[in-house]
Design brief:
Radius of gyration: 46 Å
Strand content: under 5%
Number of helices: 55
Shape: flat
Number of strands: 0
Oligomer: single chain
Length: 976
């Protein structure tokens, strides 16, 4: 099955307009910024309007005004408020109120200044100071970003004083409209100002503002024209570049790629707009089907701008530009870089799809499948998700994972993209009817052939015969015509139409394809055999042996089959013995041996039959089903010979090795139950068997085994019922009975049973004592648990070393729980210093000892324990790093901070590079201690090491937070 070519990939994944991706760059001109990012001139007008609040109106004494002039803002506000509270509000009061607004603004109280101005305008609508107050209020709204509030005030100002502050008021109104998204109104305001003052001091900025309005409005060509005109008038190359770029972008949005290309080319590559223009140019060239021209532009751009945010997009476009070339490794690497650099970009899913597709084309099917799965997981709603489902299915198909391939190829998202491949996946998975259904839309030669083959494999012989006939008529010159004729003959044979199959098989005897010719000769012999033309069949088979070495083994085997079908078993055995001597490794040797065994079994030649069945089991050519039959026949033969133990062994092998033979093996009574997997059936069969044979030793042995299985499966009530029925319980029986009683919550009964075992001396005393101790521990009787584990340690003969070691740990744990800390400490020290104890357990003993001492706040002793643990542990290792960390922690807790810092610094060489968990904690603790010691630079260095490590995010976040805190709160001189 071939995968579709990638010719359509460009159309599938490169439909995202460049303008949508361009949001990665800042907006080209925010409405209140000039090209250098400074405040636009309208801000000067705002400041000038606020300055007009300084109305030259004498005040009585004027102390408040004088203080404001001296920038003594707090004093000025106090004096002005006092004056306004006591003086009549004449002209001096009005001017003082405006001065109060100025003072509040100087204080930074912009809301207070706004409210003061509003109050003024409400109280004195006809005041001679109304105009500067109105302009100041508009300026405050504008400066606060309250554009919706600024608009009506500015409109009122322009209405009442149309000839004052024309530019500042008009353009402030225009920028306010722009910020509110009211682009038509903004355009009108800009146009009105420019019509009145085409060469005014703010004209250039107003034209740029108009261009910005068109840009944000989506009228890119209009914006481009504005910028181009400004660039020509002012000789500002950056503005001219901006205009050329926007013209290219406008044509790109209209998909007029030939028109976009020259505009992008007009932008200076080294200018402010050069980077994005080069990307736009490459994209336009790609869309104009000129990938060869785009490739060098992208390659150069990637080299020149290694840190640019558009690296991901450029890598994606580079991969697209090389898509039609044979440089598949470079294509894959470009897509990989694009996806890796920005996994949340608009083109990330497309890049990942391109990577998976390119890997598929390079026969890297596992990699292609992995990346396809990542795409479906991380980008489930991406437009290419459907194609990815189909691609993943085909990649899995190529790896032989047919069922997995079916799941993805049949997914609704895949649509019809993988329908043809789905049919082949069904076919390879043996789901032939589903394959036929999937292939319904296709009528080409390959599908027609496999459709007929699927019908044959599904056993739909009449359909297969008709399908092969149709294929042979419709595609008589197909490369598969000989295979089709062979399939047709095979279908005829399987349908029992042997006479009809003779003609096609004779025709295929001389087929051009040798493997078909050879197989046809053998099938011809099968047809003759089926027609009981045994002599003809043997003559045909002998001719195969003589002329066709490849199929000589098959032919020799079939000669024996002809004798068997004639009922001449002796001759069949003789023929097969000759066949086995000449072809000892042939694939049908096992079948021949099995057939010989059956002939001998029917002749009651039991030893010889057993020899043949044993040879079947040991021969590498024997299949699973044949081995199962041979083993069952071995068991049957042994039973026929009266060798019951041998038969039991055979039945157990059948039960454990061949699940499909469970029912037959069950006729071997209970001989396979102990190794069975169906516990319910086993218990049921055991009960049935014991009703007839209650004292059978095999049944009682199985009873113990099944009781243990029930306990391990937490089926305690059933286990109690079964084990309690044992007429002569052994120590093992009682032990599992006690375990089942304990699991069922029958604590008293379990304790009685375990006590009985402990006194019986039948081999399960140690296990019973351990269970009694565990029960006491679980009940909170730690002293009793301790005594029972001590009793276990003192038993003769001694328990196993593993049991002794575990029990010693349990004794220490019980003593800790019982508050007997000195005794627990002694036990743990004994374990830790015992050279006979394996090293992992010695380290664990030191660890538990350290925990016990820490809980008692015995810091010096805890530190010593951890020092011993660190010495014993391998260097580097987690155990060594952990122990050294706690040494430092203990010193810190004891108040010895300098030594604690030294101890914590030793964690670094002890920490394994692959797992720095203890190193991270040690570094953070060092930082905390250095802070308390006032060594701020050392603290920062410790935190910086954590921030640079690949560890859990919370550690890095906390370290960075501590660094920021130190830098914000500690004087710079203390950080040197």
């Amino acid at each position: 099955m071939r995968h579709r070519a990638l010719a359509s990939l460009f159309a599938l994944i490169c439909l995202q307009p460049l303008s949508a991706a361009a949001q990665a760059y800042p907006d080209p001109a925010l409405p209140w910024q000039d090209l250098a990012g400074q405040r636009a001139p309208q801000a000067d007008a705002v400041r000038a309007a606020m300055d007009r609040l300084d109305i030259p109106a004498p005040l009585a004494g004027g102390p408040g005004r004088d203080a404001l002039a001296r920038r003594q803002v707090d004093l000025a506000l106090t004096l002005l408020n006092r004056f306004l509270a006591t003086a009549p509000l004449g002209d001096d009061g009005e001017a003082s109120l405006l001065d109060l607004a100025r003072g509040l603004l100087a204080k930074g109280d912009r809301p207070g200044a706004v409210e003061t101005l509003r109050f003024f305008l409400r109280q004195w609508p006809g005041s001679r100071l109304q105009r500067p107050a109105t302009l100041a209020l508009a300026a405050l709204h504008f400066g606060n970003g309250a554009y919706a509030d600024a608009v009506p005030v500015l409109k009122q100002y322009r209405s009442q004083w149309p000839n004052d502050d024309v530019e500042s008021a008009t353009y402030a109104l225009a920028w306010s409209y722009q910020a509110l998204g009211q682009f038509a109104e903004a355009e009108g305001a800009f146009r009105a100002g420019l019509d009145r003052e085409p060469q005014g001091p703010m004209a250039v900025q107003a034209r740029l503002g108009l261009g910005d309005t068109y840009w944000r409005w989506g009228r890119l060509l209009a914006a481009a024209q504005i910028y181009a005109a400004v660039g020509r008038q002012t000789n500002d190359l950056d503005v001219a570049d901006r205009g050329a770029y926007l013209a290219g972008e406008a044509h790109s949005r209209q998909q007029a790629w030939p028109l976009a290309i020259p505009h992008f080319q007009a932008v200076r590559p080294t200018g402010t707009w050069g980077r994005r223009a080069q990307i736009g140019l490459a994209y336009a060239l790609l869309q104009a089907q000129r990938p060869g021209d785009a490739t060098p532009i992208l390659a150069t751009w990637l080299t020149q701008h290694p840190q640019d945010p558009w690296q991901s997009a450029a890598q994606f476009f580079l991969g697209m530009s090389r898509l039609g070339t044979k440089e598949l490794p470079k294509v894959a690497e470009a897509f990989r870089q694009s996806w890796t650099l920005d996994k949340r970009s608009p083109w990330a899913a497309n890049a990942l799809y391109g990577l998976a597709m390119t890997e598929f084309r390079q026969a890297q099917f596992a990699d292609s499948a992995n990346h396809s799965q990542t795409l479906l997981k991380d980008y489930p709603t991406a437009p290419v998700a459907g194609q990815t489902q189909a691609l993943l299915g085909e990649a899995l198909y190529q790896q032989g994972q047919f069922q997995a391939a079916i799941r993805h190829l049949a997914a609704p998202e895949a649509g019809g993209a993988g329908q043809r491949a789905l049919g082949f996946a069904y076919f390879r998975a043996g789901e032939y009817q589903a394959a036929i259904q999937a292939w319904q839309p296709y009528q080409d030669a390959e599908v027609s052939f496999y459709r007929a083959q699927a019908a044959l494999n599904a056993g739909q012989l009449d359909t297969a015969i008709q399908s092969f006939q149709g294929f042979l008529k419709t595609y008589p010159t197909s490369m598969r015509v000989q295979e089709g004729l062979f399939g047709y003959a095979s279908a005829l044979l399987r349908a029992g139409r042997h006479a009809d199959a003779i003609g096609p098989l004779r025709e295929l005897e001389h087929a051009a394809r040798p493997e078909i010719a050879r197989a046809s000769r053998l099938l011809l012999a099968d047809s003759q055999t089926a027609l009981k033309r045994f002599d003809e069949a043997r003559n045909s088979l002998q001719a195969v042996i003589t002329a066709d070495p490849t199929n000589a083994g098959d032919a020799a085997y079939k000669i024996g089959r002809t004798w068997l079908q004639q009922g001449q078993g002796d001759k069949a055995i003789a023929a097969w013995e000759s066949y086995r001597q000449q072809h000892p490794t042939h694939r049908q040797v096992g079948d021949a041996l099995f057939n010989e065994g059956e002939i001998l079994l029917r002749a009651k030649a039991y030893p010889e039959a057993l020899d043949r069945f044993a040879a079947v089991l040991s021969h590498p050519a024997s299949g699973v089903e044949l081995r199962a039959q041979a083993l069952m026949h071995s068991a049957d033969t042994a039973l026929a010979m009266g060798e019951t133990a041998r038969a039991v062994s055979y039945y157990k092998q059948v039960q454990s090795s061949f699940p499909t033979r469970q029912i037959e093996a069950g006729r071997g009574l209970l001989k396979a139950l102990a190794a069975g997997t169906d516990l319910d059936s086993a218990v049921s069969a055991l009960k049935t068997y014991r009703s007839e044979h209650p004292e059978d030793l095999v049944a009682l042995e199985v009873l113990d085994a099944l009781g243990q299985k029930l306990v391990n499966g937490d089926r305690y009530d059933e286990a109690i019922a079964l084990l309690s029925s044992h007429p002569h319980p052994s120590g093992a029986t009682l032990f599992w009975l006690g375990r089942s009683q304990r699991g069922a919550g029958q604590v008293a009964a379990a304790e009685t049973t375990f006590t009985r075992i402990a006194a019986a001396n039948e081999g399960f005393e140690v296990a019973a004592l351990d269970q009694l101790a565990q029960m006491a521990f679980a009940a909170g009787s730690f002293d009793l648990a301790n005594k029972r584990w001590q009793q276990l340690l003192n038993r003769q003969p001694a328990p196993s070393p593993a049991m002794i070691l575990q029990t010693r740990f349990n004794v220490a744990l019980a003593q800790v729980k019982d508050g007997k800390l000195p005794e627990a400490e002694t036990h743990l020290r004994d374990l830790a210093t015992d050279a006979q104890v394996p090293m992992p357990q010695r380290l664990e003993a030191y660890r538990r000892l350290g925990v016990t001492l820490r809980e008692q706040r015995r810091w010096a002793d805890a530190g010593n324990a951890y020092e011993q643990m660190a010495k014993l542990a391998a260097h580097p290792s987690l155990a060594a790093a952990e122990a050294q960390y706690w040494v430092g922690y203990a010193l810190s807790a004891a108040g010895n901070k300098p030594e604690a810092v030294k101890a914590l610094s030793l964690v670094t060489p002890l920490s394994p590079p692959a797992d720095p968990r203890w190193l991270v904690q040690a570094l953070f603790k060092q930082g905390e201690l250095q802070e308390t010691l006032g060594k701020w630079r050392m603290a920062i260095e410790a935190y910086q090491k954590i921030a640079a490590m690949r560890t859990e995010a919370n550690w890095r976040t906390d370290s960075q937070a501590r660094i920021r805190w130190i830098q914000q709160h500690i004087p710079a001189k203390d950080l040197r």
